[in-house]
Amino acid sequence: MCYLLVCWHHVFFLVPLLRKGMHARTLRVLQACALIAYFRHEQGGDKLRELLKTQNNRFFMHSINLGEVYYDTLRVSGFDKAQ
Fold first, then answer.
1. So which domain of life are we looking at (predicted)?
2. Dist. CA 67–CA 64, nearest whole Å
3. CB within 8 Å of 60: residues ≥ 6 apart
4. What is the distance between the alpha carbons of residues 83 and 75, in angstroms, rounded to a whole number?
5. Domain range annotation of the chain
6. Cα–Cα distance between 80 and 76 in angstroms, integer?
7. What is the separation of C-alpha 65 from the centre of its chain, rounded to a whole number of angstroms?
8. HEC string of the chain?
């Protein structure tokens, strides 16, 4: 199956290019800034919140991006919050 990579508000989507009769399941690759905005209740975080509620979405995030979220939380909110 082929996928098309699309970026929308710092969330990357791997959209399957479907053949006739196939069912869609959207794979999404999260960037650190999208998850940080979600945790901080910043602009754009509400879009991710809505995407998380949709059942046909599947999310992926690289460990480096997850480390960036941890570091940002550690720097801004402290060790206890980051844990």
1. Bacteria
2. 5
3. 27, 28, 29, 30
4. 12
5. 2-82
6. 11
7. 10
8. CEEEEEEECCEEEEEEECCCCCCCCEEEEECHHHHHHHHHCCCCHHHHHHHHHCCCEEEECCHHHHHHHHHHHHHHHCHHHHC
The pLDDT value given to residue 14: 57
**Cα Dmax for the chain:** 51
* pTM: predicted TM-score of the whole model, two decimal places: 0.65
Give me the residue label for tokens 């069912």: 23
Q: pLDDT, tens digit, for every residue of 43-54?
A: 888 888 988 888
Place of tokens 């460990």: 63
Phi/psi of residue 75, each to 5°? Answer: -65, -40
